[in-house]
Amino acid sequence: MPDTGFMSPDNVVANANTFFNTAWLVEASGIIVFLATTGTQTVDGFENDGTLPAGATITGAEVLLTNTYVTSGTGTFDIQISIDGGSSFSSSITSGTIDTSGGTDDYTVGGSTQLWGLNWSGFSDLSQLQVKGLNGVNNIYSQHVQIKLYYTETVHTPTLNIKSGEVIIKGGKLTIK
């Protein structure tokens, strides 16, 4: 099954109580903070706002948070995605428990068959894609967030229909299977 590979955002579009820290957008030197409040932050600009291949049908979406940890105890957070430029967001998916015992770990939310409660019909414009983090329990830190979209491609079989008339082939080879 084809996928987009993990795509990185380049813009913070909404910030309430600092959720993803804007410094984190500098690759490998920033940090995302999931505050133990109702703070939220939304990011976009995935892969320079490209598009999916023509005829692609989304089968799932996966969000990856790298080098993630909580400084004490355990914590969770919710992730939502938007495919319409932030006009509406998906159902929340919870990260699962993050604790101090593992040091920094990578966490995946969603997957190759997780549609997040969204109708992906006709979606192809990555400039409309946004990721929102919200509702952290304990302060959670992460170095980077990325998203990967899984899709199938429609295979079009070329056909030749001749309703009437004459076909003349001058030289060459014609193979009909």
Description:
By secondary structure, this protein is an all-beta fold. Helices cover 0% and strands 40% of the residues. The chain has no helices and 11 strands. The protein has strands at 11-16, 32-34, 40-44, 56-70, 74-82, 93-94, 98-99, 105-111, 130-137, 140-142, 144-153. The model is unreliable at 17-30 (pLDDT under 50).
Low-confidence stretches: 17-30
For the record, give the distance between the C-alpha atoms at the N and C termini, rounded to a whole number. Answer: 28 Å
Shape: elongated
Task: Give the averaged pLDDT, no decimals.
Answer: 76
Please state the structural category. mainly beta
The profile of the biggest β sheet is: 6 strands, antiparallel
Order of helices and strands: EEEEEEEEEEE
Total of DSSP H or I helical runs spanning 4+ residues: 0
Instruction: Tell me the β content.
Output: 35-45%
Radius of gyration: 22 Å
Query: What's the number of extended β-strand segments?
Result: 11
Helix coverage percent: under 10%
